[in-house]
Write a structure and sequence with these properties.
The protein is mostly helical and 409 residues long. The chain has helices at residues 3-25, 31-37, 42-70, 73-91, 96-124, 130-141, 143-159, 162-182, 197-208, 211-241, 246-270, 276-299, 305-331, 338-361, 369-389. Keywords: Cell membrane, Membrane, Transmembrane, Transmembrane helix, Transport.
């Protein structure tokens, strides 16, 4: 594969992967404006974020078997069309309940892009390159939290929150055109893959029974839930506890994304000397230490705007090391049904994000503690799952192995 082809594939796959995060991040500065316009509270508006997570969790399980049965592109096109329709629906919403429903549908459409891009990493690149490719995808994805909230803040201030969803509609159209024209078919449809409920469930169970998969997918999902806690809680924390406006919040969000994305790129350098397993171990230990130090400061009332930003930056740096390595280790044992495996991995991740965002939305009073407590708790639980789960792995497939010697399920 030439460098030009490699770069182009990363760019397209990264755009697909970024669609969901962009849909999450871009409207966050508009929470107060949406609450005012739809006659509700910012906490209730955050349920539209929870609804998005629910849609992604369910949708990924739907698209996994479809991607294995019909190939990657047809289900991807259908999902993108659903996304475009739902984004336009969000822009025209006249009530908070209507917005929540459209956000669920929007998520179901966007997760086709997420699942397809992850599965195509496994299709197009050797297993030894997967962790590096995931890190590069995070670099492309990193543009969204750096740009989306900042742009969203200015767009909301100038044109209102409806314009944000019109922009997302346009993005969906552009990505659909790019994938139709330039993304290669990476997987031959498996006509033996049944779409009846029982075979689909049995296929998912076969994936889940792989110890390396459930250990690292759950570890990565729970650790990543700390990021969802930050995304769900940060509008309330920064705009109602520390009283920043939409534009300032957008710039803070962009700055904090540098920690997450920067560490994911440094990960490629660490992989030259350390295994993915070693990096996950160290990153999780650091994540726990930072999380509980952050929580102690929050409970004691010592946090300021600056110290909050610093703690969040350090915590997100740890997540940037954990996710790409946990994802690569999760998918390493699979070749034939990587679509189903990536769907389950994404469903675990978004399921955890849904639970943690709903929990945070239950706290109506402005406070830093719910967000920070959820972040610290997720880090500790992820470390426990990793330590316990590794005891059941008898034949580990290392992502640093040069050959695709994974388990053929």
């Amino acid at each position: 594969m030439s460098r030009k082809t490699y770069f182009f594939l990363i760019l397209i796959l990264g755009s697909l992967t970024a669609l969901g995060p962009f849909s999450i991040d871009m409207y966050l500065p508009g929470f107060p404006a949406i609450a005012k316009d739809l006659h509700t509270t910012a906490a209730k508006v955050s349920l539209s974020l929870s609804g998005f997570f629910i849609g992604i969790s369910v949708g990924q399980l739907l698209y996994g078997p479809l991607l294995d049965r019909f190939g990657r592109k047809k289900p991807l096109f259908i999902g993108l069309c659903v996304y475009i329709l739902a984004s336009a629906g969000c822009a025209m919403s006249g009530s908070i309940n209507e917005l929540i429903v459209w956000r669920v549908i929007q998520a179901i459409g966007s997760c086709a892009a997420t699942v397809a891009s992850v599965a195509m990493v496994r299709d197009l690149f050797p297993v030894s390159d997967n962790a590096k490719v995931f890190s590069l995808l995070l670099l492309v994805v990193g543009v969204s939290p750096m740009i989306a909230p900042t742009v969203g803040g200015y767009v909301t201030a100038a044109f209102g929150w409806h314009a944000v969803f019109l922009i997302l509609t346009g993005m969906g159209v552009a990505i659909l055109a790019a994938t139709a024209l330039w993304l290669p078919d990476s997987y031959k449809p498996d006509k033996t893959m049944s779409l009846k409920p029982r075979p689909i469930i049995l296929n998912f169970l076969a994936v889940v029974r792989e110890p390396q998969f459930y250990t690292y997918s759950l570890t990565g999902a729970i650790a990543f839930a700390g990021l969802f806690a930050y995304v769900s809680g940060s509008p309330l924390v920064f705009m109602e506890v520390f009283h920043t406006d939409e534009k300032v919040y957008g710039w803070i969000f962009a700055f904090l994304s540098v920690g997450f994305i920067g560490s994911s790129q440094l990960n490629t350098l660490f992989l030259r000397k350390f295994t993915s397993e070693q990096i996950v171990n160290m990153a999780l230990i650091c994540q726990v230490i930072i999380g509980f130090t952050f929580l102690a400061a929050a409970l004691s009332g010592m946090l300021t705007l600056i110290t909050t930003v610093v703690f969040l930056f350090l915590f997100l740096c740890c997540v940037g090391y954990t996710y790409p390595n946990a994802a690569a280790l999760s998918l390493a044992p699979f070749t034939k049904n990587a679509g189903s495996a990536s769907a389950l991995m994404g469903a675990f991740q978004m399921g955890m994000g849904t639970l943690i965002s709903i929990a945070i939305s239950l706290f109506e009073e402005p406070s830093v503690v719910p967000m920070v407590g959820a972040m610290a708790g997720s880090a500790l639980l992820a470390l426990v799952v990793l330590v316990v789960g590794r005891r059941f792995i008898t034949e580990k497939v290392d992502v640093q192995q040069g050959a695709d010697a994974g388990v053929m399920h």
